[in-house]
Amino acid sequence: MADNIFWLGHDSFRLKGERVVYVDPWKLVAGAEKADVILVTHEHRDHFSQDDIAKISKADTVVVAPPSVAQKLERVVVAKPGDQLSANGVSVQVVPAYNPNKKFHPKRAGHVGYIITLNGKRIYHAGDTDLIPEMAQIKCDIALLPVSGTYVMTAVEAAEAANTLKPALAIPMHYGDPDVVGTRSDAEEFKRLAKVPVEILEKTK
Fold it and tell me: 136 phi and psi, to 5 degrees?
């Protein structure tokens, strides 16, 4: 089921289907495949990289981002929680991402996650978030969930989120980069605790 999902490290993914969609491109290799759609969840440096956006942009690439990012770009579709967008023919639902009890991602900041429909599957990229009540309303086939703790959910909380979402597949993220918290052991703990199928992806280019 994850054949068209490529983990590029940390929270960065390339999704392939009718279009090529990147979420939070960061530390991409030279010559990375060009994007039809680029989705940015928030303005922190490990999620919003103008250099990486430039690397994969072509004339008709559509960038979708919340206001905190959009104000730093010239051509961008502004995304707010609750929005339903079509970007280069890709259906994108915008959902909240925040920390209820931590200072890093306050709800008022308007940070987001996305539900992207590709190949008839709804792929939920949660962004930097904790387990939040809005997740009970999210319908997805595949859930990409942060597991590192500190800035986002711990592996235990992420497993609870997966059990709430009940996707056909969950994939851990927000780990494995030396510049940010989170290790593969977080991903493995998440897999052990989740009551849904979990696939730990190997990093790809």
Answer: -65, -20
Q: What is the DSSP letter of 17?
A: S
> Residue 65 CB: number of other CB atoms within 10 A?
24
CA dist list (Å): 26 to 21, 179, 195, 205 = 14, 12, 30, 11
CA gap 36, 17 in Å, rounded: 11
Fold of the CATH domain 5-193:
Metallo-beta-lactamase; Chain A (3.60.15)
Q: Where are the beta strands (DSSP E) in 61-189?
A: 62-65, 77-78, 84-87, 90-96, 112-118, 121-125, 142-146, 169-173
* pTM higher than 0.70: yes
Backbone torsions φ then ψ of 109, nearest 5 degrees: -70, -20
Kind of pairing between the strands at 142-146 and 169-173 = parallel
Tokens for 84?
């339903």
Series of mean pLDDT values for 10-residue runs along the chain (205 residues): 90 96 96 97 93 96 96 92 96 95 84 96 96 96 92 93 97 92 92 97 92
